[in-house]
Amino acid sequence: MAVIKAPPSAVKLLARLMRAEAEADGKLGMLMVGNTGVNRVRGDCMDFKNIDTVRDMVFQSPGGFEATQKGYFYQRARQSEIKLARKAVAGKRYHPASYSLWFFKPAGSCPAQWFNQWNTGRFKSHCFYKPTESNCPGVYSTY
Questions:
Q1: What is the Cα–Cα distance from 57 to 63, expressed in whole angstroms?
Q2: Single pTM value for the model
Q3: Which residues lie below 8 Å from residue 137, measured CB to CB, with a gap of 6+?
């Protein structure tokens, strides 16, 4: 069962984002990007108010994803990424991205905070950051 509304076109869009942002980090890295995207749709908080669809989330500006702005987002989704996107839409969570709303690829180590949000960990090249539960309860709600 999906935790956000995601018709097939939205699943493909999420899959493209996951590939563009984290293909080099493998399947688990792409799943974590998917977690972050789904959390942004579910959260309705902070920088992500009124982000109601996958399309809204993918193309949010400002505050969106580097991949959509730098041109490497426009590869089509392969079946393997579509399968991963379905897992994210179904609510599968992967630490350290379980409750994250942000991630980035630093040149060095992960800062403890990024835009006043706490680091939850690193997976390969990306550091993940989550809001507090009081700032964004929608991210923490159960399915």
A1: 9
A2: 0.95
A3: 45
